[in-house]
Amino acid sequence: MPTVRITIMLKPGVLDAPGQAVLQGLRALGYEVEGVRMGKVVELAVPEPMRGRLDEMCRRFLANPLIETWRIEDLEAVR
Amino acid sequence: MSGRTTWGVVTFPGSNCDRDCQHVLRAILGQTVVEVWHENRSLDGIDALVLPGGFSYGDYLRSGAVAATAPVMGAVRAFAASGRPVLGICNGFQVLTEAGLLPGALVRNRGLRFRCAAAWVRVESTETPFTAGLRAGQIMQMPIAHGDGAYLAAPEAIAALDAQRRVVFRYCDRSGREVPAANPNGSLAHIAGIASPAGNVVGLMPHPERASELLLGSTDGRALFESAVTWMLGRRAPAAGGVR
Asked: Contact B153/A61, CB-based, under 8 Å?
């Protein structure tokens, strides 16, 4: 079954608390990192006819359009 | 209180304030309580509904997001559309926003910390069942306990909330001032609670059920439940001089 990977990120203006915490940790270890954004990765095994509905799934459930953006990738193509 | 109404308290996997709400409604207010499991598809016989606090589905995906897809939510939508009172407390508020029954979103607290503290809020609107018995401008003390409590909405949504007087509570200090230090989580415009366009659906982050007995330090929260009971009984009674 084809697999897709969905990457969900908080929009730029929204406070990314995990990203901030990881940024502090990296700096504490001496790495000069200027910014960290943490997101979510969801991999789905979907039958072919469902592929056209991935964006709808993101909009309705997997992401919150008010605060998040998403990117859908075909994992077969990535590999 | 004299007069009885029937309250449904919904339990999702991970709800943890459902018992507290049942206790306040049953033992303190003398109301009838129906325990509503998240798989129920009917809310027949219920006058008012509470979506309680907790960490439904472990807050997986986003707080309230998975609960918003639970089987009971179809009935909750119909219940809300019928105009009967619905109160979402903390995680219940998050569920209502994720379900689209209230606008906006509750995101990670500014300052990154889970906040467990006493908070003060000012009553901004008395045009809901839960605040009809309160005074506009009244200051109330209720506890907060949340990690994702910063209220966020698009500017036009905030403008609509203001224009339609649907901001129900704002965080303030104990004398009612909106000073920055009184905003515990970075909520836009100090918003602690809002209502639906019809006013019958209310969501708030503070916990009124944890402020309903003197033993717990405040009884301010009890007034929200009492207000809704009075509101419902008032609607049930035939209008003076009316014919039935």
From this structure: no
Buried b or exposed e, range B189-202, using 16+ CB within 10 angstroms: ebbbbbbbeebbbb
User: pLDDT means per 10 residues in chain B (244 residues)?
Assistant: 88 97 97 98 97 96 96 98 98 98 95 92 98 98 96 96 98 96 96 98 98 94 98 80 46
Beta carbon pairs, A and B, within 8 Å: 30
Catalytic residue among B21, B90, B124, B190: B90
Best mutation target, B112, B185, B188, to test chain A (most A CBs within 10 A): B112
Q: Min CA distance, A48 vs chain B (Å)?
A: 24
pTM: 0.92
Cβ within 8 Å of residue B40, ≥6 positions away = B71, B72, B75
Specify burial of residue B142 (Cβ count, 10 A radius: 0-12, 13-18, 19+): buried
**Is residue B90 annotated as a catalytic residue, yes or no?**
yes
Q: What is the pLDDT of residue A77?
A: 66
Using an 8 Å CB-CB cutoff, list chain B residues near A14.
107, 152
Residue B110 and residue A20: Cβ atoms within 8 Å?
A: no
ipTM strictly over 0.90? no
Task: Say if residues B187 and B150 touch (Cβ distance below 8 Å).
Answer: yes
Residue A17: which pLDDT band, with cuts at 50, 70 and 90? confident
Phi then psi for B226, rounded to 5 degrees? -60, -40
Please identify which of the residues B124, B190, B207, B226 carries the catalytic annotation.
B207
| DSSP-based helix, strand, coil % in chain A, nearest 5 | 40, 25, 35
